[in-house]
Model the fold of this input.
Amino acid sequence: MSSTFSHGYALLIGVGECAYANLSLPVTVNDMQALRSVLTNSAICGYPDDSAHIRLLQDANATRGAILDGLSWLAEQTSTDAEATAIFFYSGHGWLDKKTGKYYLIAHDLNYSKVTSSALSSEDFANALRSIKSRRLLVFMDCCHAAGMATAKDAAIPKLSSDYSQEAIPKGLAAKLKQGEGRAVFSSSTSAQQSLIRPDGTLSIFTYHLIEALKGAGNRPEDTVVRISNLMNHLGKTVPESASAACGAEQTPFFNWDTEDFPVALLCGGKGLSPQGPAHPLLENPFKPLNGRIDDPSLVFGRESKITDALEFLKMGSSVVFLGDHGSGRSSLLTLLLDRVSKDLGWKTAHLDLQMIEDEKSFYSALCETLGVAEARGYRLSRSLNGQRILLALDEVERMTFKGFTRNLRSELRGLAGDASAPLKLAMAASTPLDRLFPDSFGSTSPLAGICQQIQVDPWGLPTAREFLLGRLKNTSVTFSEAEIEQLFQDSRGMPQQLMHQAFHLYRRKLGQEP
Done:
């Protein structure tokens, strides 16, 4: 099956900031962004990640007019696609006018003195939904928010007029919203309940479990798509359980649908679950490995310019050394460079971790075995490599200062790699400049320092650290606040290994896996 749910369209709204600060709901933006990440992930739901299929409204952009424009956009985008599946997701305040019985969605530009004209009335909302002619329309409404930041989506709000009360959408309105062919409405709670957030403050309980369901928590291994019934069954079970366990409160989502059980997304990119069933997606920690060299090139982040420099030096005939403190990622750069040299230059590559080498004899034995030649030294080794182009990566070169290693080894490596046309080039990782690490040349250039271009590997800056953290969190339901990101950066001093370690534990704390 294709990894693209090409007929999927979504309008996602997290009101976030409101014109009245005490009405602002930052968690609604987290909900929206987390949902968008899952929908547009080709390995999960498979919605096309472009402006023709996904539209987001948040903060100052989530005005009454923008919401209506967004609904018009959704109607237009699906009007020419007979197979379209449309999703509307709203997370924000919902108010009931107790005098008139009218219901309103509260937008960014609410005016307290003109609620009826600045908020989005249920009539205008229902009419806009009816303009969407898609045969499959799924509406998610997360509209009632309890007071108190520990358990709910908003801080205490200004005093409402006694004419208004905060409520989830009434069941009568849900029935109106589903009028038409192929409509389904999911509400996060009943009208008498409140919509709660997880104790870690990251997401609403409803959205947390919705994302679980979209990742396959309610499916069987033979399924290849997520259907309405999968969402309903999972949300109906897990939301009340979480609300009770985490907040000591009741929250029961309700569903109103009278349509075919249509697919709303791909399941695991269309491949479906493994025969063992779903691994719990939200428990998969994206921050690993915690220690040591990263051996998967795709996981090396934020160092592309260093690799570009190294490739240029190698093509010009020089060897290179990545120089940085322990934990800076210098060893992991060897992984990425070996991969790029193999793909971009077509060279043979080999890697030796000197932590595993005891002395010069074992060095030559391991080197020749790694290069696939008979064990030899000096001229015979050089002859066996003629006509080849090889990059040899040496990690932990500080080991060469230990007993059992002499200047002869470094001189011989220079002989194998020193000329621009030599078959062997070196890429090394070290924490000390080579001329200081091996001060054994008595006024002349130290053998290895003389053939290596030095590439400094400094700690990350805050923008790079932020990009890394948010990128790893993109396909999870967990979010880190800006304050948490800055604290992680400060505590780690921008060192990638330490940042990874600390982010790993923060992620676990947010999932309640450690105190």
The first strand starts at residue 8 and ends at 14.
